[in-house]
Specification:
It is a single chain. The longest helix is centred in the first third of the chain and has 32 residues. It is built from eleven helices and eight strands. 43% of the residues lie in helices and 14% in strands. Strand 6 and strand 7 form a beta hairpin. Helix 1 runs antiparallel to helix 2, helix 1 packs parallel to helix 4 and helix 2 packs antiparallel against helix 3. The chain has two domains: 95 residues; 185 residues, TBP-like. The chain is an alpha+beta fold and 372 residues long. Strands 1, 2, 3, 4, 5, 6, 7 and 8 form an eight-stranded antiparallel β-sheet that branches.
Length: 372
């Protein structure tokens, strides 16, 4: 007996067979599959056509935006370096020149173009921030402020401007005035003698003790043409009492004693700036000295000079017993902490403006020959 085998799964013809895959395979055939066909991961079914190679220039198009971002960033950094150099040398006018404005626009344009691309967006944003923050307006303003503060402008000055910048005297003031007045050394000697006599007399009469609250100093005077003159502003040693000077009658007596002593050294009668009898608005007097009348004021300021010479004598009293708000005490505590001077009491100092040293007379005279 002949055994019958199972009928074949497929017959010889196409009847019952699965359809032939379309050209290129089924959609999604590249997905990861695990099955009888053994396709794993990013493989493709057996017999499927190979992937098409990338189009020529596709990689270049991807790199181009990133390159544009780097170019924009480099341009922004270069612009900042140029601006910093101009700031250091004090060329304030260069920031507002057509060249700098064009460079600024170029940097801004590159930054905006880079931001518009996906690959160069981050670098472009950095470059755009630099271009907006450190622009010609900001850097130009900084340069102008620096030049105004230091007087270091050396841009496109004419020879005439440079000549007058070195003028040894003061604009609109006759040079002979500085040659004929007290010299710096003479005022220094007068200040030492006057202040020593005043301190000695006040100690003898009222028992006041003293401490030097600031050393003498000299500061060059500006000549009015953008430079420094050969003249200086002199401030003597500042002396302060270690104990308060309080009470209207006592303060008045102390000031009159000072006036009598300085008169012996050629100083004129003293003027009380804090006295409303001088015609100053009482409201202003109150704001400046802490009270509308000398009896209620925290500060007293008396002044004298030795005209026609340039010396100014100052005697100031701070009396915190009249400070009803505590504002003056708080201010004085901050000052005392910074300078070490007493909180209150009497202070003496002498100031001289436009002082010419005897050591510079010849140089001053010689330098004046360059000017009409």
């Amino acid at each position: 007996m002949v055994e019958r085998s199972d009928p074949p799964r497929y017959v010889a013809d196409s009847a019952g067979a699965p359809p032939v895959p379309p050209p290129g395979g089924y959609r999604g055939a590249r997905r990861a599959l695990l099955g009888a066909n053994g396709v794993v991961g990013g493989g493709r079914p057996q017999g499927a056509p190979a992937e098409a190679p990338p189009l020529p220039g596709a990689d270049a198009r991807t790199k181009s935006p990133r390159t544009l971002g780097w170019i924009a960033l480099a341009a922004g950094i270069g612009f900042v370096i140029v601006a910093l150099i101009l700031l250091v040398i004090g060329a304030a006018d260069a920031f507002f020149s057509p060249t700098m404005l064009v460079l600024q626009l170029v940097v801004l344009g590159l930054a905006i173009a880079a931001v518009a691309t996906r690959a160069g967006r981050v670098l472009g944003a950095v470059a755009l921030t630099v271009a907006l923050v450190l622009n010609v307006g900001t850097m130009g303003a900084l340069s102008t402020v620096r030049v105004a503060a230091t007087g270091s402008y050396a841009g496109h000055k004419t020879d005439k401007q440079k000549l007058w910048e070195a003028y040894p005297g003061i604009k609109d003031k006759e040079p002979s005035r500085f040659l004929n007045q007290q010299s710096l050394e003479q005022l220094q000697a007068l200040a030492d003698e006057t202040l020593a006599d005043v301190r000695a007399q006040l100690t003898a009469q009222y028992g006041l003790q003293w401490v030097k609250s600031a050393d003498a100093q000299e500061r060059p005077e500006r000549n009015g043409y953008g430079g420094e003159s050969m003249l200086v502003r002199f401030t003597s040693d500042t002396w302060a009492t270690t104990t308060p000077v309080t009470g209207y009658a006592h303060k008045l007596e102390v000031m009159r004693t000072i006036e009598s002593v300085i008169a012996q050294h050629g100083w004129r009668g003293m003027v009380a700036f804090n006295d409303p009898a001088g015609g100053v608005d009482p409201t202003m007097i109150s704001k400046m000295y802490g009270g509308a009348t000398p009896e209620t004021q925290v500060d007293w300021e008396w002044f004298s000079d030795d005209e026609p010479d340039p010396g100014w004598f100052y005697a100031d009293i701070t009396d915190l017993a009249n400070d009803t708000t505590g504002e003056y005490r708080a201010s004085r505590e901050q000052t005392a902490k910074r300078t070490g001077e007493p909180l209150e009491g009497l202070q003496l100092a002498i100031v001289g403006r436009y002082m010419l040293s005897e050591k510079k007379v010849d140089d001053f005279t010689k330098a004046l020959t360059k000017y009409p």
